[in-house]
């Protein structure tokens, strides 16, 4: 009797405080979008990807700046000065000097230009370094785009899983309500105890409360997906179940690994880093090479005091020719810089090999997880069939008075759980498929 009272009070409280789950407040109509359409929005408007694209534009300007080093350097300048008197101490500092007549104003205007012909190929190397960095930034854009698409796919699939869970749960609630009506009728006929009705009511109430949790999961997934597309929070996506990828046609592991070595973003970035270190080594070695260039200079001055005899007139003077230099001290001062650059290159080559190992591990992990997810789907399908048959048998035996209410409720729970597991396994397979595509650089 005491247990019956507890069941009655608990069921009453759950039914009083429970509010049926209403449709998610989306602030507007649902946007029916396929995964490809979500990707198109994410790639176009995602803020993180936009920042990477701006870095590429900055890299292009840096290349133009490096190429401008090939242009001649041109400078102009001018000066004006007041010249003091020039005393001449003919009889020593202790006697009054005589004043030599000078022109008290002097001014000049000059210009010079220098065109580099050869400086150890450093100009071309600087351009190549900037081009390598820009190419690396382009790869980073593609890498970020792939990561954004993977993130959007995960949120999209999480949203779809939540909606499928809710549909399964609502169907189960409807079935349990019909079952509860039958049990209530049996109680009225004196066939079963009231405790059976209370247990069935408790089970139904728990399922109804679970709808709220699922609704919250759906709302969170929708917001995460909206943020990925840089849309407002009330932008509610309704997934298209027909747009899921078919993971059955995945290549073999060796084929996937070969694709990853050619297309994986981490490997491409590492290749660019290695190329950059090689260019930096050549740049340091170029400091030991001679420098040759053309130069020209011309100046207009007043007065003429450069050559004797001096004259109080405006004059012009220009020079043009070839200028060459070679740093003798660079042969021993740059030795350690060259050695350090060589070590940096060797270090980067080792890191590149380590990166290839990481790619192999990543592809193998994603490939095995996909196979595991596929196997989980097959097992889940078998479990659903077995749970459906078990539920059918227990349902018949209970209403024929040969099994207990606990057996019936356990069978109901097991059936719902196996259906949840099948849905989660199917969504998980999709997630693993896109993670594999991201690992090989093909997303």
From TrEMBL:
Keyword Coiled coil recorded: yes
Signal sequence, start to end: 1-23
An annotated GO cellular component: efflux pump complex
Compartments in which it is found: Cell outer membrane
Main localization category: membrane
Protein name stated in the entry: Outer membrane protein TolC
InterPro entries linked to this entry: TolC-like
Single Gene Ontology MF annotation: efflux transmembrane transporter activity
Entry coiled-coil feature ranges: 338-390
SUPFAM superfamilies attached to this UniProt entry: Outer membrane efflux proteins (OEP)
Protein keywords: Cell outer membrane, Coiled coil, Membrane, Signal, Transmembrane, Transmembrane beta strand
